[in-house]
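Request from the bench team (R.T.):
"We need a structural guess for the complex before ordering more NAP. Sequence and SMILES attached. Just send the tokens back."

Command: build protein-NAP structure.
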Amino acid sequence: MSQERVVLITGAARRVGAGLVRYLHARGWRVVIHYRSNAAAATALATELNAARDGSALPVQLDLLDVARLPELVAAALTAFGRLDAVVNNASAFYPTPVGGFTETAWDELVGSNLKAPLFLAQAAAPALAQTGGCIVSIADIHADRPHPGLMLYTVAKAGLVAMTRGLARELAPKVRVNAVAPGANLWPDGGEVFDAAERERILGTIPLGRTGTPDDLAQAIAFLLDAPYLTGVVLPVDGGRSVVL
Ligand SMILES: NC(=O)c1ccc[n+]([C@@H]2O[C@H](COP(=O)([O-])OP(=O)(O)OC[C@H]3O[C@@H](n4cnc5c(N)ncnc54)[C@H](OP(=O)(O)O)[C@@H]3O)[C@@H](O)[C@H]2O)c1
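Reply to R.T.: structure attached below.
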């Protein structure tokens, strides 16, 4: 079995997930690049990384709402690479759901991608992770316990993801560690619907370190958790100090 570690990153074709793929790949990890709809971006990223190091990147398509198929992601990693050392739950649906207007479809998408899929994926991946002494890192949000107006279902889902992190840290110990990072403002969502220009300015003014985070800021924190043998059940804010003042 190759000694190069293998990480499965969900929703990794672009934005934060793609940044994390590049960061870990540059540090010797082999990567399973999960995506749902961005096939072109995921394939291009894998091609680029395989050109740099042959056989080091695998794109895999799946809608995470299809929970029964989540074990296929684990199987893909094991078939291609023979081992699985880490899962990073990055994929996320994100849009406003003001109270009075939300639907069961929105619940299914937001809770399905941000909570249900990570939990069932953890269950599917646990045996393979136990074999390598591996770990899970989920990307939560500082708003999981400091709700942002208008984001009810996303908030509920991320709060569940934090609870999952702590619960699984107990359940899967001592063989598998389970941690999370909680970003503040990192890459703004595509389009200006959720945070318009004025809201972005206001948020910027509440960040002690005076800037939004970058994918590399998050990747650095995640890489630390991947290699921290005595940390489990931790939710690490990566927010430029914003949670201190919220
Ligand atoms: N950006 C920020 O400032 C910020 C702040 C706080 C927390 N976070 C968290 O950090 C993580 C990354 O943020 P981001 O802004 O880069 O995320 P994003 O671009 O909004 O979403 C990442 C990916 O999630 C995938 N996805 C959504 N629903 C899915 C489903 N049902 N099945 C499979 N894949 C699905 C999409 O894949 P496809 O494109 O392939 O469809 C998408 O590209 C997320 O967990 C987010 O909640 C981000």
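Two things stood out. Residues 119 and 164 are 7 Å apart (CA to CA). Residues 104-132 form the longest helix (29 residues).
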